[in-house]
Amino acid sequence: MKFVDIKFLLSVHKLSQLPPPTLPEIAFAGRSNVGKSSLINTLVGRKGLVKTSGRPGKTQGLNFFQLADQAYFVDLPGYGFARVSQGMQNNWQTLITSYLETRTILGCVVVIMDIRHGAKVQDTQLISWLKQQKIAYLPVYTKVDKLSGNARQKNAAALDAGHTINSSQRILFSAKSGQGKEELERALASFVVIG
């Protein structure tokens, strides 16, 4: 499965705006500025499809991208530090939680973490919550090109331990070099079951 024929569909700010549940969905979650937009752009081979920003809090709704007639990619607002009001962050949290809990066609949540930083409480909470809810998730450690081989392995092992993840369960990814792209494509394709 190649993720090439893709277009922006809509930005959802309340559950009533969700598109009909006709295609499998893959959601992308992560703290602000972990490289979520860059990962999706690399995956689909389109530099500017998902807008990247140095300003945390740029994504403010559930952004749906349609992959031909195969699936939807859903870009969730980043959590953690964002230059928006606490009220808006709380609204996002309610929207995201409701979406994840009720969307029966959700195939997987890609949980994106920056390999340069240690385990963060919010990532741990999200992973634990997804496990409790029995929602499939796929940890992806981004920005691996920014570390040397030894530092990369050390940081990956620390994140694995911090989130109780087996190294076979996660993917090391670089939007810059393309490392992990094919592995991620294969993994996502396994979650997209049509029919």
Question: How would you describe the overall organization of this protein?
Answer:
With 195 residues, the protein is of the alpha/beta class. The chain has a 7-stranded mixed β-sheet, sandwiched between helices. The chain has helices spanning 36-44, 86-102, 121-132, 149-163, 181-191, and strands at residues 6-12, 25-30, 62-67, 71-75, 106-114, 137-142, 171-172. It starts with 5 loop residues before the first strand and ends with a helix. It is globular. It contains 5 helices and 7 strands. The longest helix has 17 residues, at 86-102.
How would you summarize what this structure contains?
By secondary structure, the chain is of the alpha/beta class. It has a single domain, classed as Rossmann fold (3-Layer(aba) Sandwich), CATH 3.40.50.300. It has five helices and seven strands, in the order ββαββαβαβαβα.
Rg (C-alpha, Å): 16 Å
- Separation, N- and C-terminal Cα atoms: 16 Å
What does the main sheet amount to?
7 strands, mixed
Question: Could you list the spans in which at least 5 consecutive residues all have pLDDT below 50?
Answer: none
- Average pLDDT works out at 88
Query: What do we call the CATH homologous superfamily?
Result: P-loop containing nucleotide triphosphate hydrolases
The CATH class designation is Alpha Beta
Shape: globular
Number of E strands: 7
Number of H- or I-type helical stretches: 5
- Helix percent reads 25-40%
Name the helix and strand elements from N-terminus to C-terminus, one letter apiece.
Answer: EEHEEHEHEHEH
Give the number of domains.
1
The CATH topology annotation reads as Rossmann fold
Strand order of the largest sheet: 1-3-4-2-5-6-7
* Class by alpha and beta content: alpha/beta
Strand content bin: 15-25%
Name of the CATH architecture: 3-Layer(aba) Sandwich
